[in-house]
Amino acid sequence: MIRALYTAASGMSAQQANLDTIANNLANSATAGFRSRQVQFEDMVYQNMITPGSPASAQTSTAGMQIGLGTRSAATEIIMTQGDFNQTNNPYDIAIQGSGFFQVSLPDGTLAYTRAGTFHLNNQGTLVTADGNTVLPTITIPSNATSVTISQYGVVSAQVAGQTNATQLGTIQLANFANPNGLTSIGNSLFQQNLVSGNAITDTPGGTSGVGLLQQGYTENSNVDVVTEFVQMILAQRAYESNSKVVHVADDMYSQINGLVR
Q1: pLDDT tens for residues 37-56?
Q2: CA-to-CA distance for 214 and 121, rounded, in angstroms?
Q3: How many CB atoms neighbour CB 163 within 10 A?
Q4: Which end of the chain has fewer CB within 10 Å, C or N?
């Protein structure tokens, strides 16, 4: 019965982590470029009361008896489904249709990656994120530009006052990963690579590596499905209640055993 108390408690702890993840998903349901996460569970160590395969007689062996000691939250996986597009008509807002991430240079010089294409210009005319981080490769818009065009293949062009033809300013490149679901979230809609995700593979939009195309004047909404999250929340709540009921029943049984000595 003591085993049942700790086993049920592990289930309650795992569902608490599940609920925390669901709460974060719902809180970011309106965050541009946000990617929802899903908790993965695994069973814990088993106690061998009778080892499976041990001899029951000279000719037979027993199936054994193992008692599990609960569950735990093993990992959270990023869900990389496409979010809906929101038209803004802002020439510096860019959405990725398909796979891939924008490359961003952080203040400490490290690289980060994002799906949030809510860009603007800083005081030097450089394309930056909402937090002021430079988008790579660096694109600088002339101060006398009258219009800016970003093609679906990432080519940035500007119509400059006094010139007949548009001036090509550079090409936006995207990064992709062998396992984007394993990226590390660092906040501010940014990700960083690690051993699980693999190294970044950069390419121009629509290139041979499989990265998507760009849509100027759009932002990508969060991919959180609110209805699905509410269903998962109810399931987490019921699982938590079931485990708490086991704790209550085990406690009652233990109390009855203690009463036998009276």
Answers
A1: 999 999 988 887 777 767 66
A2: 18
A3: 13
A4: C
Q: pLDDT exceeding 90 applies to what percent of the chain?
A: 75
Q: What is the pLDDT of residues 181-238, one digit of tens each?
A: 999 999 999 999 999 999 999 999 998 888 999 999 999 999 999 999 999 999 999 9
Type of residue at 121:
L
Output the pLDDT for position 59: 62
Rg of the chain on CA atoms, in Å: 27
* Domain boundaries defined on the chain: 2-79+224-259, 85-220
Whole-angstrom distance, CA of residue 103 vs CA of residue 85: 20
Rounded Cα gap, residues 95 and 119, in angstroms? 10
Q: How far is the C-alpha of 92 from the C-alpha of 11, rounded, in Å?
A: 47
For residue 169, pLDDT beyond 90: yes
Give the residue from 206, 3, 179, 169 showing the smallest Cα distance to 91: 169
Q: What is the C-alpha to C-alpha distance for residues 122 and 131, in angstroms, rounded to an integer? A: 10
Distances (CA, A) of 115 to 93, 130, 144, 252: 11, 12, 29, 52
